[in-house]
Input
Amino acid sequence: MPNVNQKDQQNYDIIIVGAGPAGVSTALHLAKLAPEFVYRTLILEKARHPRPKLCGGGILPDAEFILRSLDLDINEIPHVDVDWARFDFDGQGMRMRGEKGGRFAFRTIRRYEFDAWLAGKARERGFTILENTTVKKIDVHETEVVVTTDRGEYHAVAVVGADGSNSLVRRAIIPHEDTHVARLLEIVTEPRPERSFHIQADSYFDFVYVPQGILGYSWDFPALENGKPVRVRGIYDSNVYPVNSDVSLREAMADEFNRHGYELEEYKLEGHPLRWFDPKSIFSSRRVLLAGDAAGVDALFGEGISIALGYGGFAARALRDAFARQDFSFGDYRRLILGSEMGKSLRRRTWWAKFYYHLRWRGFQRLVWHHLGAVVTWVMQHFMIGWARRGKRQA
Ligand SMILES: Cc1cc2nc3c(=O)[nH]c(=O)nc-3n(C[C@H](O)[C@H](O)[C@H](O)COP(=O)(O)OP(=O)(O)OC[C@H]3O[C@@H](n4cnc5c(N)ncnc54)[C@H](O)[C@@H]3O)c2cc1C
Output
């Protein structure tokens, strides 16, 4: 129920813009931390679940840890247990599992299923998600935020911008900003085990195009679509430096397809940006919080599902505390993020992305992926993943 009165259905305490993992996680964490807000929160979503979302769908153990803490079990939806994550350069490399001693590297889901499932859980817990409603404008006033949509105007005490990498909410509080955006292309194909040299149970990250100026990797993940095995393939360019690449993303993707016995022209190629984390960035302003891609995720690999779920927990805590203190400056939100295990992991990933993608010569790439596998595994397992569990232990 809205906070003002029954007649005025457009006044809420909290409006969350975007029903992706960041927005829905904010809601689910709120239901746990401060259930009194469930009926005083409105989630606005421009699409309708199940909606398409370009994504490799790789779910790391951190995401599953957060889901379990919210009493959610990913086994309820179709997924694939990826045996090994392989990191290659020039046809050789290393392999690792997500957690030391883990049974698998990570899992893959398809986002239309995952996000619809998550949104369903928020609805079951009492939240209202208004779909097919696009937020067009955010005006922050002294005592409220006015959210203008294509279906009318809504008012809130505080707003969470969980509206992805092209976030309108972010642009409302930080105008004229077009940096820190990675580029990604993706295609879902049928498996061709007879033509591809990839092991079908494994996922691949290939850094073959780094020396040519693509500051990222091509990926190939196994997944399930409508019950059938598929391969989700794509290419990631972190863009952590301005570089004049020798190849375009499309050319690199075509080359990658060729190497595995596919013709790029036969498929529909789609792209989407990804905002990466900068510790110096702005994460909130008066009455407004940013979460997920709108705030910034992993620069090194473009991993953002677990991070979006993680942001949800911090946004919910900041909201609960703001209402308790009746102080909506959200001055502590930045400290909350940067001081958290997730924030530390994100900081390290941005640092590593800038370091690693700077050293683009072939000899260095060979050294890292052909000879330093044990070191890379140790760094990843201790400093980049596992932050959700470490954060819980500290809390
Ligand atoms: C090609 C690609 C591959 C990726 N692969 C992986 C991977 O394998 N593993 C991984 O962990 N991460 C991956 N990522 C990153 C991951 O997809 C994102 O980090 C994650 O989706 C962030 O979640 P979010 O909730 O912040 O944003 P989103 O998932 O983008 O959700 C934002 C929501 O807001 C809605 N919205 C947007 N604007 C408005 C508006 N104006 N009004 C109302 N609603 C609005 C959108 O419809 C959407 O539902 C990939 C990203 C890309 C682009």
